[in-house]
Amino acid sequence: MSRVFAPSTNQADNDLMLDALSEGDAVKQVVLSSGLRVWVVTRYAEAKAVLLDSRLKKDPATLSDPALLFDGGRHPEDSYAVLGRHVLNTDGADHRRLRELLTKCLAPKAVEQRRQRIAEIVGTSLDTLDASAAPDLVTMFAGPVMTSVMSEVIGIEKALLDRLLTAVRTVIAGADPRSAEAREAADAQQQLILEAIDDHERFPGTDTLLKLAFRDYHPNGRLSLAEVMSMVALTVFAGTTTSTTLLAHTAALASTREDLLEAIMAGPASCSAVLSEVLRRYPPTPCATWRFAAEDVEVGGVTIPRDATVLVVVAAANRDPQAYPDADRLVVPRPGNTGHIGFGHGPHFCAGAPLALATANTALPALFARFPQLSLAVPLEKLRWTANLGDRSLFSVPIRLRPDERPA
After folding, report:
1. Is 15 exposed, middle or buried (0-12, 13-18, 19+ CB in 10 A)?
2. What is d(CA 269, CA 342) in angstroms, rounded to the nearest whole number?
């Protein structure tokens, strides 16, 4: 009987699920809560090998029969694979062509030029947080910081981006892609992106994603309008949701552990070490997005058959005791040089990693410098998470900014 792979909204229960999933072979067939059978990879070495293996494709057109895709129907979180044309459902030269636009916007050099503006955004968000009657690390700090930053990277007014993010989140991470809500969200997503495109020339700056797309890529046919729209939707979701979780959760953890807080305040290098360890132990993307076997592929002594759907379970591989001593604990600095795969590995390594890390590395020291006695208003273990395969986000992290405050 195949095991059931069903993430939990409770972190302790989720850890137990991942432990059970990792027992036995590194590669195995499981059943998702929807009933879909997939192959999962749960060990670090095998996960890295799969992420590099060109026989395991992102493009669902790889399948020998279209009816094999998600058993011939729609599936929760299938949008990355089946909707649009973007960097997460393409391979090879097509993927490199699409990724080039993101690289221009999100490469370390481009991010470095935004550092001062990121610091200004963080300062404004801290003022808003301080004035809040119900301070919350997700809704009042990390979320607003990341949407403001992404607004300027993409070139969309923040109010419009907030509406677009709501629609995109329903399309990508909603429970039922066949529902009326999902269809309405998809229509809203398309209309909002077209509105942003119509207004993109009015947005300040010369190097936003939309200005680059319509100056250097779309006019000469390097990107179609549909591809630009797909890339905008993907960037809005991936660039805000996962980074919001990384920032909010790292701050929550640091508020309960003096060693993490000291490392954050000690300088950029040690703050980066904290972020790296949180990404390892609690990746906001628990599974890499869907892959499809173009042929029989042997991994870890197990043969994944042609046309199989494959998930690399990053959250399990990053806790592999064969790769990390004391893998279940946050250890800063972590000994050894085994890098985590929280941002992926290989050709599909997250293009937004430099921006996410730079923003968090700016925001965390500023947060604790402003509120050195910040504490959680609820126990860490009581925080609730989304139970998605590709997006593990915190709903809310209520906090006290000062010891004498009472939670709202």
Report:
1. middle
2. 18
Place of tokens 């990693």: 353
Please state, in angstroms and rounded to a whole number, the distance separating the CA atoms of residues 39 and 246.
27
- At 351 the three-state DSSP class reads coil
**How far is 98 from 235, CA to CA, in rounded Å?**
12
CATH number for the domain formed by residue range(s) 3-400: 1.10.630.10
| Digit-coded pLDDT (tens) for 154-172 | 999 999 999 999 999 999 9
Q: Strand 309-312 relative to strand 375-376: parallel, antiparallel, unpaired?
A: unpaired
Is the pLDDT confidence value at 337 over 90? Answer: no
Domain spans in the chain, listed from the N-terminal domain onward: 3-400
Is residue 51 within 8 A of residue 345, CB to CB? The reply is yes
Neighbours of 340 (CB within 10 A): 21
Closest by Cα among 64, 3, 61 to 31: 3
How long is the chain? 408
Mean pLDDT of the chain: 95
Does the pLDDT of residue 356 top 60, yes or no? yes
Confidence of residue 403 (pLDDT cuts 50, 70, 90): confident
331: Cβ contacts below 8 Å, ≥ 6 apart? 277
